[in-house]
Amino acid sequence: MPELPEIEATVRLLDAAVRGAEVDSARAPGLATMRTFAPSLDALAGGTCSGLRRRGKLLLVGFEGGGLEAPATLVLHLMSAGRLQLWEKRAGPRDRTVRLVVRLRGGADGFAEERELRLREFGTKQAAWGKLLLDDQVAVDETISHLGPEAWPDPPDLTELPPRRTLRGAIRDQRVIAGIGRTWADEILWTAKLAPLRRCGDLDDEQRARLRQAMIDVLGGALGLYMDGGVDPADPDGKPRKPLALPLPDKLPLPLLVHRRTGQPCPRDGTTLLAVHYEDDEMTYCPTCQTGGKPYKDRRLSRLLKD
Ligand SMILES: [Zn+2]
């Protein structure tokens, strides 16, 4: 968290607001946040924001003019606890969650006053990071060049999945396919009725097609709910949700049917959902519709997961 649907929704909402905005200043109160030194964040002042886009789980914020010698992109990775939000008030000095601030004026939504695009991070760790790269460096930077094809809206046919890896390990590996983390991996594998620790090479064509379709449906379904509102399939009350709006909430309610629902009934067959743990990873699965009635044992798991 946040993964492809959350990043895509963030990018769409922020782009519609701040594209074309003038940059007053940019700074990084998070001392370890910026991983590049040139161009410096100071070079953004006086320029404009050319818009936001997404690659995998990365947010790409474009800038031009000001002190920049050429158009540049601020590449941001929110890691597990970061958010990119837009605020109409300046950040207070006591807000310890602030890692990076770009102060803007105006934008595509016609807002005339000053606003702050803020990278905030919750929890004690400083893991979220940014790189400011000239545009001709973006595609060759290792954080971008090592990414696999996008998991949505048109994932590859999955014949190239590494045969000896587990499904769970492979679809979470950004070099194999970009955009899926531990949250949506649980939902996708449950939707496709596939065992998380199955070897990729064991899948037949029909199962590969099922997995690909589950990526499209699950990631696209979550994004649709964020952007258009509607009924959250995981909400027992079935009360329609409103579309997301700025500033994005600190905690986005995710429409999850299995992830973190260990001990609750499988929405498909009522079997109690189980979890397996390995190092810092936890996966939730249904032993009826995913692993053929057999729960995983942890010893088997630790051997299998060394991939
Ligand atoms: Zn089930």
TrEMBL record:
EC code: 3.2.2.23
Enzyme class: hydrolase
UniProt cross-references to InterPro entries, sorted A to Z: FPG_cat, FPG_N, H2TH_FPG, Ribosomal_uS13-like_H2TH
GO molecular function, one term: DNA-(apurinic or apyrimidinic site) endonuclease activity
Catalytic reactions on record: Hydrolysis of DNA containing ring-opened 7-methylguanine residues, releasing 2,6-diamino-4-hydroxy-5-(N-methyl)formamidopyrimidine
This protein's record includes keyword DNA-binding: yes
Domain Formamidopyrimidine-DNA glycosylase catalytic: 2-123
Sections of the chain in a coiled coil: none
Keyword line: DNA damage, DNA repair, DNA-binding, Glycosidase, Hydrolase, Lyase, Multifunctional enzyme
Biological processes annotated in GO: base-excision repair
Domain of life: Bacteria
UniProt family annotation: Belongs to the FPG family.
Name of protein: Formamidopyrimidine-DNA glycosylase
